[in-house]
Amino acid sequence: MKTLMEIEIKNMIRQATDARARSYSPYSKFPVGACLKGQSGAYYHGCNIENAAFTPGICAERTALAKAVSDGEKAFEALAVVNDRDTIVTPCGVCRQALAEFCKPDMPVICASKRGEYKVYSLGELLPYSFGQEDL
Ligand code: THU
Question: What is the Cα–Cα distance from 1 to 90, expressed in whole angstroms?
Fold first, then answer.
């Protein structure tokens, strides 16, 4: 896995926490924020956005990814995800697959709790044996 300085981990957790404040999650009451760092050095932020019809809801990670790709960034250095509980959560399966389209398996994924405790996984650890464009 690519190494990340502690100061950068904390910086990205803080930015993901700011994004979490904009979460629209009236149904689950489970706010999530994400911060995705592009290879250009730019940071992209996302929150989960739910819907009364449930299915159209989108996770924080894919919100950040969509913002980044639509701004022209297609390669990434790191991702931070912060939820609002004392436990650490990792990205859902759909987000792992969406990230794998643009992020290398050695990209660090920082998963943080409300209190700031965190674990860092590589995307490859979270999505082993992934299906990608090389399989088509
Ligand atoms: N959610 C995320 O935004 N990211 C995750 O990593 C896990 C789940 C959202 C989806 C839904 O709005 C709420 O959290 C509960 O599942």
Answer: 17
Give pLDDT tens digits for 69-114.
Answer: 999 999 999 999 999 999 999 999 999 999 999 999 999 999 999 9
For residue 84, count other CB atoms closer than 10 A to its CB. Answer: 17
Q: How confident is residue 14, by pLDDT bands cut at 50, 70 and 90?
A: very high
Q: How far is CA 68 from CA 58, 72, 73, 83, in A?
A: 15, 6, 5, 21
User: What type of residue is 110?
Assistant: I
Residues with CB under 6 A from ligand 1: 25, 28, 30, 32, 48, 50, 57, 59-61, 81, 89, 91-92, 95
CB atoms within 10 A of CB 7: 8
Residue 61 catalytic? yes
